[in-house]
Amino acid sequence: MSTQTMKEGTTSSATITCDGTSVTLPVVRGSEGETGIVIEQLRAKTGMITLDPGFGNSGACRSAITFIDGEKGILRYRGYPIEELAEKSSFLEVSWLLLFGELPTRAQLDGFTAEITRHTLLHENLRRFFDALPTDAHPMPVCAAAVAALATFYQDPETDQTQHDAVIRLLAKMPTLAAYSYKHSTGQPFIYPKNRLDYSSNFLNMMFATPAEDYAVDPVLARAVELLLILHADHEQNCSTSTVRVVGSSRANLFASVSAGISALWGPLHGGANQQVIEMLEHIEAEGGDAQKFVDRAKDKKDNSRLMGFGHRVYKNYDPRAAILKKSCNEVLAKLGIRSRKLEIAMQLEGIALKDDYFISHKLYPNVDFYSGIIYQALGVPVNMFTVMFAIGRMPGWIAQWLEMRKDPETRIARPRQIYTGATNRAYLPIEKRG
Ligand code: SDX
Fold first, then answer.
1. How many folded domains does the chain comprise?
2. Best residue for ligand 1 mutational test, from 275, 276, 279, 312 (most atoms within 8 Å of Cβ)
3. 47 with 135, same domain?
4. 95 and 47, same domain (yes or no)
5. Do residue 236 and residue 103 come from a single domain?
6. To pair with 1 at 20 to 30 A between CA atoms, which of 32, 217, 268, 381?
7. For ligand 1, which residues put their CB under 6 angstroms from it?
8. Domain check: are 254 and 144 in the same one?
9. pLDDT one-digit tens code per residue, 353-380
10. What whole-number distance in Å separates Cα of residue 368 and Cα of residue 348?
């Protein structure tokens, strides 16, 4: 195959030759210099398709929302480095940025915040929905089901206004749904949202206040929640975001699409990894805290242990979010006067792994999930709620990507092909003649 790429923003071409047949396909180049061969006409011109299990080499779309350079450990939302947004922005400001492409003016942010504040309540029927579920249910399927159920309360035909309303409702109600899923599991009464509290403080209050006792929101914890939500807000075409896009490409509504994304995020290889990391650290601690022994097991092909929170499909360098969270771990724990043995073990694991040939050769570095759980625990969030925290953070990203997909003139219903490997044509055999 030969290809020439030209300066940014223009296209060139690639020629693929197979069995004496050649086809020339356009090459597109993104604003950060990424190039891709456009294979839309491949099958029409050659009868062939490409095969790329896990889509590690396949672009599903053009997107202007988030840029990741995995080799350099770069993450930017709409061009703004994650390090700056983490330090200087707020979750609702980042949400506006992801949704609308620019940082909001003061008036825009105030209006957006006011709209979201006014939509944090759930319909009382939906509040009763939780009563039907077992108290020991994992909160992720509870949230996935509750988000899907939102579609039963807001059934207006899709217009720009109803779509905007759905965006506001999802951002506003996700913390309420999350807190309710936690309260349901504890048997405690639900705590209603309070409009006088900011987004993260309101979530903490709904989680930890009770009718018998007010909850004093510690500003250190509220800021830690903001940071965690900002860091999780979007991450280009990851598994759950791709799920949201695929479901939305069938013209399913935003609630249904996001509900599917929540289910995809629950997987232990994706957002469920933050829960797995803490369980891994607890396991290592219970076995005496020998980090080296666990690293050796994670390398052993005969042992299916993995160093959870390590490795990434895109990052082949340190996940910038992990670096920020590692620093925040130390700050939050110090401010709260908490000594975390799990943090000590995590840092030992990192120190060993980053010097280990296996991890170096496989380019395995800490990812966003490696340190996040330690902060969640410091916040008092139970382990099975960690991935729900991820879902609250990822909500603006899922929505922004869904909206971009819906507005993209190139969008078609997602329907991949396959290479069939099953039985070839054969006649039906009556049961009495079978072996
Ligand atoms: C998230 O995509 C995103 O952007 C996701 C995310 C987001 O913000 O949306 O960043 C959030 O999901 C982060 C990832 C959280 N998952 C984990 O921490 C689980 C542990 N990590 C992995 O299982 C793995 O690294 C993945 C799932 C993250 C990536 O999987 P890939 O790209 O399919 O890589 P792979 O499983 O094919 O592994 C390649 C090699 C294998 O070894 P070989 O067979 O080639 O010898 O690396 C090894 C794997 O065995 N490997 C690990 C490892 N991760 C990969 N070995 C030990 N420990 C690990 N953690």
1. 2
2. 312
3. no
4. no
5. yes
6. 32
7. 54, 235, 238, 269-271, 273, 298, 306-314, 362, 364, 367-369
8. yes
9. 999 999 999 999 999 999 999 999 999 9
10. 17
Q: What is the pTM of this model?
A: 0.94
DSSP label of 131 = G
Structure-block tokens of residue 148 = 């899907």
Q: Would you say residue 433 lies in a domain? A: no
pLDDT at 3 over 90: no
Summarize pLDDT for 11-51 with one digit per residue, the tens: 699 999 998 889 999 999 999 999 999 999 999 999 999 99
Predicted confidence (pLDDT) per residue in 151-172, tens digit:
999 999 999 999 999 999 999 9
Encoded tokens for 327:
């620093």
The mean pLDDT of the chain is 94
Distance CA 119, CA 126 (A): 14
Measured in Å, residue 269 CA sits from the centre of ligand 1 at: 7
Atom 41 (ligand 1): residue with closest C-alpha? 362
Distance 395 CA to ligand 1 centre (A): 23
Compute, in angstroms, the gap from residue 233 CA to the centroid of ligand 1: 20
Confidence of residue 5 (pLDDT cuts 50, 70, 90): very low
Q: Nearest residue CA, atom 47 of ligand 1?
A: 362
The HSE-up count of residue 3 (CA atoms within 13 Å, CB side) is 20
Atom 40 of ligand 1, nearest CA residue? 362
pLDDT in tens, 237-285: 999 999 999 999 999 999 999 999 999 999 999 998 898 999 999 999 9
Q: Ligand 1 centre from 313 Cα, in Å?
A: 6
The Cα-based distances of 389 to 14, 106, 392 in angstroms read 43, 27, 5
CA–CA separation, 219 and 416 (whole Å)? 48
The yes-or-no verdict on residue 185 having pLDDT over 70 is yes
Q: Does residue 168 share a domain with residue 31?
A: no
167 and 237 part of one domain: yes
Q: Do residue 26 and residue 83 come from a single domain?
A: no
Q: Which domain holds residue 142?
A: 78-409
For the CA of 56, the closest atom of ligand 1 is: 32
What is the pLDDT at residue 297? Answer: 92
CATH of the domain at 216: 1.10.580.10
Atom of ligand 1 nearest to the CA of 362: 47
What would the mean pLDDT of 198-212 be, rounded to a whole number? 97
Exposure b/e, 261-284, CB count within 10 A at least 16 = b: bbbbbbeeebbbbbbbbbebbeeb
Q: Does 199 reside within a domain? A: yes
Closest CA to 64 of 80, 77, 82, 83: 77
